[in-house]
Amino acid sequence: MREGDVGGGLTTPRPPRAQRANKDLLGIPRNVPGSLRRAAADRAQRAAPAPPGGHKFHTRAMLLMRAQLTWLWEWLRNLFKPTRPLPPLPTGDNGIYPLSDGPCLVGLAGDWGSGTADAYAVGDALGRLRPDVTIHLGDVYYAGRSDEFADFFLPQNCWPRGVRGTYVLNGNHEMYSGGEGYFDRALQEYRQPTSYFCLQNQWWRIVALDTGYHCSKDGDLLLIALHLKHDSTKLPAACVAWLAQTVFADPNDRSGVTSIAWRCTPDTRISAAAASATAAFPSSCRFLIPIRRCRWCCTTRGRANRSTASRSA
Questions:
Q1: R_g of the chain computed on alpha carbons
Q2: Are residues 73 and 205 in the same domain?
Q3: How many domains does the chain divide into?
Q4: Model pTM?
Q5: Model confidence over 138-169: pLDDT tens digits?
């Protein structure tokens, strides 16, 4: 029985989805204060929707002031609020989960958590394919807050669930709120132990990496734009150790690899020389070098609502 069926050809109406206009997603800031400011203004607007003809001047002024005060408080709090710790893999869980050895459909989308009609259309189209597994590559806007996950991502009629499993990756916008929505809500909802994992069958591995936890942000972005500093986005040390000690522990294993992440960073495109020269990326992590048996799927800065469905057989 499909979701919403109650028998006899009748269907129960699905609850309305929280909605944002496409124009609300234009010019999204790529920094903490800007994203928190947009998030505060968005909450104020959705809490007091404008009547026909718009709000009166004094109401608009009050809503604007409330949003600005909320943003200022959250930004100041964010300066001192610790980032959510990266959860370790539980005892007995190596972070590698099975895929079917038969035909297997994997659905991917990135930058999806916007609440726009376009995003929902992409999600609905992906859901109609009934993929075995769905994976979100990261970014729930504006700042990956708990309420943004609750409104635009976690409801049953938002992000499409996979028949056999649903997984979520971390992105830079999730970390603008310290990771509260991603680590406290999303991982719990999908029973995903941590922010990196591997799906594999007899022939292929899908290696999912967390390139959002240590993403470049705020002042670093300005220095990078001025070519005064290299992008400092990197993989968490626990993720690197897991790759070396668990996923690629066997040097003779030649299974095909598809690596996925919120973003392909300088660290994930490290050269062979650098890989052998630094302890942070030991030679056992050679799959991070773009080689013939490794395929990449990651989001690209400034693009949204990409999706793909990959079938392995």
A1: 21
A2: no
A3: 2
A4: 0.79
A5: 999 999 999 999 999 999 999 999 999 999 99
